[in-house]
Specification:
The protein is α/β, with parallel strands linked by helices. It has ten helices and 17 strands. It binds zinc ion (2 copies).
């Protein structure tokens, strides 16, 4: 099969088609999304070599459990050991032995085929298009905030960062009843959020008084975004670190302690609530797709992302067949 392979450099390669182990399904990938984590992997983050990619929709073509064959599916990305004490507590996403699709010791989805345990799969409801289903994983990551904290209706929340993740978090928290303000630096991305009824402000806006939000979210994964979120959170408030932060963060620890701010790290989430939001169209994702490249042009898709402020770039596997 054809795949994008990263081995210090990203290239299209012919590789053996994977074989499903017992309890696994062989999935034909239809679309895959490129996310910030994939771009970090190409910079050497996590030392991953192999086929990257973890956001996808596909169709099961082979499986020992025949009810899955032919089904359109998305897949949770953490593969837990099922035996350790974390797994026993239902925290498989924190299992120390876990592998992670396209990120840690497990070939990913920038390929024609991928295998995953049936336990990781979710059937995609007919109302969700292939392209929209590709967003299940990032929407689940946005929903994770609601699993971690209670957000009473009407709570003012400031989200720093108007990238794809910030735009998804804004929609998810708004739907949950929060009073969302999205703070960014790209006019067209802020316009998109405004069209969904989200209050938007530019980073330099004077309305942004320090300590004016009980909850702030950093969706930039940058030191700058984190400091902005810390500046905006009120005493006894909560700062959610939603983007994967790489390396050491420098921030005002005095403010954190003196204002008794709760710092909440937040990573990936479970798929069921995300599929529900997508099915009911409470979250719209089509406007977030900037461009679709065929798998053959995967390296060009990454270059395109480096050169533009594109939101989401998808890879289409079926192209030319
Ligand atoms: Zn991702
Ligand atoms: Zn485990």
């Amino acid at each position: 099969m054809k795949a994008l392979y990263f081995d210090d450099k990203l290239a299209v390669r012919e590789v053996p088609t994977p074989r499903p182990a017992p309890g696994e399904a062989l999935i034909k990938v239809l679309f895959a999304g490129i996310c910030g984590t994939d771009r970090e992997i190409l910079k050497g983050y996590s030392g991953f070599h192999g086929i990257p990619g973890h956001e996808f929709v596909g169709r099961v073509v082979e499986c020992g459990h025949s009810e899955w064959v032919g089904r359109r599916v998305v897949g949770e990305i953490n593969l837990a050991c099922g035996k350790c004490s974390w797994c026993a507590k239902g925290l498989g996403r924190h299992c120390p032995q876990r592998t992670v699709l396209g990120i840690v010791n497990r070939p990913g989805v920038f390929a024609e085929y991928v295998t995953l345990p049936v336990a990781n799969l979710h059937k995609v409801p007919d109302e969700i298009s292939d392209q929209a289903a590709t967003f299940t994983e990032p929407v689940a990551a946005a929903c994770e905030i609601l699993e971690q904290m209670t957000l009473p209706a009407g709570t003012p929340v400031a989200i720093v960062g108007d990238g794809r993740l910030g735009l998804l978090v804004a929609q998810v928290l708004k739907h949950a009843g929060a009073q969302v303000t999205l703070i960014g630096r790209h006019g067209w991305k802020l316009d998109l959020a405004r069209s969904w009824g989200v209050r938007v402000l530019s980073e330099s806006d004077r309305e942004l008084a320090p300590g004016s939000f009980p909850v702030t979210v950093d969706a930039t994964g940058s030191a700058r975004g984190l400091s902005a979120a810390l500046r905006l959170v009120e005493p006894r408030g909560t700062l959610v670190m939603k983007s994967t932060f790489h390396g050491a963060a420098h921030f005002d620890a005095t403010k954190l302690v003196v204002d008794e701010v709760t710092l909440l790290g937040s990573r990936c989430g479970v798929f069921a609530p995300a599929l529900d939001l997508l099915q009911r169209q409470h979250v719209t994702v089509h406007h977030l797709i900037t461009r679709i490249f065929p798998l053959d042009q995967g390296p060009e898709a990454f270059e395109y992302l480096d050169q533009t402020s594109a939101l989401k770039v998808l890879l289409e596997m079926d192209e030319g067949k």
